[in-house]
């Protein structure tokens, strides 16, 4: 049976909220205006608005009108959502940004790629050279999934620092962490299932969800506390989520690290509501503390957490070496990995295994963490001095990414386009959500060779922002 007219109107407005046309906190058209626009009676609109209030989509404010609830929780049909830019989807935006990240003339505040001075390039060069001289036949051999045993052994040893006791057989080598995330989603969900993600989220997760025809439910994430666990609880109870992808350490882009209590709570929630936790720990080794944080996997008594990571942020993004600890999904994940890529490059796996084995990794990490902290301090000071009043930055406790929140008068996409003309790259907030909610935000990579040029580029960004506020 057809639903009544007021319900159709309510559904239509709810859909517009899901699509990000009306953002959380935004005022929706008044009852009188909607009645005129839709050519229906005022009473019908009032009934529709009252239904939307019951559904928790909008809220009436006396004398002011109706507003979208701040913490909207609804699954989003990812394939239908587009950022509001006129040039199309997140893919189009990212393609442009990726292109910019390969241009040496551009100051790379945009991509989350450390400059080569923060990577042990020299040691890898020696290692690869030696391997090619002494063991050239490794190029002629497939290193079938699950990947090099000596590398898996080294990873098992390293993961002791995160509290995990693993055997090499618990680990599958992947083509970077992105591949590990894809494999996790493929193992736990099928098209149409709902996945909880952090908001803002790493854009690779948004793309994976999009390509697998999954629904995303964006759970607000704060720089201080990380993912909002009360809202995750509500979402799990209301929507029956299949999995939650969470970055407990140095989240990209907001830099949050979960507290000990939050870690325990999210594990308990996953058990209680029967969803899989997909842990993305790609920045886990880059905490500024001497001792890295524990992983969720370490406290996963029921073996339901899937752990994903890689060496892209700390050793060699170009090597594309990552890994996955699939827990009870391990057999299936290994099977998918085998079918999708058959094998992982032998040379890069062996070079990384050798690098880990010779003990230089911890020294390398200590040095880079200190350099990142210096760059962060410099960056925050420049932003404070040159950006418009009201600009805020995150305070990462690790990694090399800063989340900048601009005043509402400054549009980050405009800033991005203007900055590119001055050869400055940045990643606008729109790349981190399937809705248009982060249009006054951008992410800044500070793993750069910091010099006068970088200082000048940040001052220029500040000037461009000031220009928009005038
Ligand atoms: C949070 C997060 N997860 C995963 C990835 C993908 O890592 P990889 O380059 O190893 O595929 C990135 C890369 O930027 C990231 O920031």
Automatic annotation (TrEMBL):
Query: What keywords are assigned to this protein?
Result: Aminotransferase, DNA-binding, Pyridoxal phosphate, Transcription, Transcription regulation, Transferase
What's this protein's name? Answer: PLP-dependent aminotransferase family protein
Q: Is Transcription regulation among this UniProt entry's keywords?
A: yes
* Family note: In the C-terminal section; belongs to the class-I pyridoxal-phosphate-dependent aminotransferase family.
Pfam (any one): Aminotran_1_2
Upper classification of the organism: Bacteria, Pseudomonadati, Pseudomonadota, Gammaproteobacteria, Oceanospirillales
Domain of life per record = Bacteria
Organism of origin:
Marinomonas maritima
**Membrane spanning residue stretches:** none
Segments forming domain HTH gntR-type = 3-71
